[in-house]
Amino acid sequence: MSVKLKDTLKDENQIKRLEEIAKDSALLHGVLMRTKDMPNSPEVVSYAPFTLFPTPVPTALFHQALAVQTQFNRLVDRVSQNHSFLEDTLASTIKVDEFTARLFNICKQVQREGHAQKIVVGLNRSDYMLDHNPDGRTSLKQIEINTIAASFGGLASRTPDVHRHILKVANLPDECSLVLDNNPAAGLAKGLAKAWELYGSKRAVVLFLVENVQRNIYDHRYVENELWKRNIPVIRRQFEDVYRTGSLDESKRLFVDGHEIAIVYFRNGYMPQNYTSEQSWEVRLMMERSVAVKCPDISTHLAGTKKVQQELARPGVLERFFPDEPETVAQIRATFAGLYTLDMGEEGDKTVAMALTNPDQYVLKPQREGGGNNIYGNEICEVLEKLKNSSERTAYILMDKIQPIPVQNILLRPGAPLKVSSCLSELGAFGVYVRKGSELVLNECVGHLLRTKSSEHADGGVAAGVAVLDNPLLV
């Protein structure tokens, strides 16, 4: 962080002036979220939470995250096509995790019947933190890869203009030039548009499968509007809508409300609570069996589970997917943090003992998405003491805890007091790929995301109300 930016953080009068300008700028540029619904109250929209200033990120590590994304796209795609690998990897997990088991059962049924659609589209986001090593070096370490409903590609397309405006008003022109252009929304839409084109029906529409209450709807809209610009029609429906009006014809074409569906884009369906009834599961199966392109399909959804992430970090496993590409293997493996199995047996027992001895050095992760699910510190001991002799421990994996260096910033949230906080950031890289049969017809990194939270919080993203939107300030 530059000296001038540090000095600005100490100037209370300047900060108060910039706060109002920043909020107005966020509203003007459409960095918006719905507020949480209150009983008997009208819907309210406000600015999405964000940092007052962009956060410094080392240039080399930023470009490393973007450069490796196309390789992660290829890896996810290859894992999703290897049913025996998924079955072997998830064998212990599906015995104790009902949600993952139900997803896998759908995957098995589709596999038995044969995939009706050979077009695959993946919209991924790989998330990283910057690990400060004891020798003083900083390295890029992957937290997870999101293969379903990877969010904030829309809002991340709008935040650079907000921070540039704030920096101009604060008389920090040098810092302003270090905030990069970023338009993941257009890139994500490019992948959907390519899949729609390959589907081959101009009458068919893209279905956004959404939740009943969607605070993050404006993030969706930026991607949706990019599709409309390309004259690709979009409809938005919930599980209940598809159950009520959806059907497959004799060719397994999916129809909803009379619309032929070219693509089902899942912005819902990644957490157990998204499936509110057996009807929701029936709908997921119907969509997976159809010739509609799924984003993601069920096997790609499973490829993003924590257990798969842990298995890929084992020695020799990446080589199975890239047998003649040692440079690709090295590029991917350089981003891996330590990941450890909790399967029953000697290796899992060793992991349990390791975690109980030094719980502050690790993170315990269940097979869940959506933020706020991870377990830290003494709570790791509480969970593992209870489960250490039970197969239920296999619902989790253990990961080294990343040790980033905090930086100071101000987090702007509607109704929250203004204060300088010690903050930690997480960098995401958006990837898009489209495959038709065995041919990868599109494979790109299409943008980035930075989220920042107060260092007092161990876990949680923007949707969970902990992190806020940010931009990298390349240094």
Describe this structure in words.
The protein has 475 residues and is an alpha+beta fold. It contains 18 helices and 21 strands. Strands 3, 5, 6, 17, 18, 19 and 20 form a seven-stranded antiparallel beta sheet that branches. Strands 7, 8, 9, 10, 11 and 12 form a six-stranded mixed beta sheet that branches. Strands 13-16-14-15 form a four-stranded antiparallel beta sheet, sandwiched between helices. Strand 18 and strand 19 form a beta hairpin. Helix 2 packs antiparallel against helix 7 (159-169), helix 6 runs parallel beside helix 12 and helix 11 packs across helix 12 (278-289). The longest helix has 23 residues, at 59-81. The model has no long low-confidence stretch (mean pLDDT 95).
List the helices and strands and how they pair.
Elements: H1 3-10, H2 12-28, E1 32-34, E2 45-47, E3 50-51, E4 55-57, H3 59-81, H4 83-90, H5 93-96, H6 98-113, E5 119-132, E6 138-146, H7 159-169, H8 173-176, H9 184-199, E7 205-209, H10 217-229, E8 234-237, H11 239-245, E9 246-248, E10 254-256, E11 259-266, H12 278-289, E12 293-295, H13 298-303, H14 306-312, H15 317-321, H16 326-333, E13 339-340, H17 346-357, E14 362-366, E15 375-376, H18 378-387, E16 396-400, E17 407-412, E18 420-436, E19 439-454, E20 468-470, E21 472-474
Helix pairs in contact: 2-7, 6-12, 9-10, 11-12
